[in-house]
Amino acid sequence: MRLGAFVLTVFAAVVLDATLAPELEILGARPDLLVLVVVYGSLVMGTRVATIAGFVAGLVVDAELPEYMGLNALALSAIAYLSGGIWDHLVRANVLVQCAVLFAASVAHDAIYYMVYYRNHLDMFWRFMARYGLIGGVYTAVLGLLVFMLARVRGWRAIAGGPYA
Question: What is this structure's pTM?
Fold first, then answer.
């Protein structure tokens, strides 16, 4: 994947996260498209590029809530950095590993963001994480499964691994 295509994918994820994700709610939880793109960006493009992209995308999303400006940027860039480091120690071509990393990244993103958002009401934080964070993590991991299957069909070795190209 070239840098321009990755930037367009991040931009599309920002737009789709604002427009399409609310329509895809299941039990009140939404898929986290930005986390999906940033984690796969760290797999394909490397940690540095994905961290910068996560930070910029987070700032764009944070423009909606100026009171918490930079919080999404912090959460997305931290997720990109951590997932990039994790990919170096895991079997990238295993679908279960990819789903587990996506689930953990989605839950960690929500934990970072909402720990600050609900800083004075930790009971609300734990209820939110139990009600929406875990379901959203599963939802994001299932979308990752679809990305993995598409990568296998299309022969994207950076994601699916193996001799598929």
Answer: 0.88
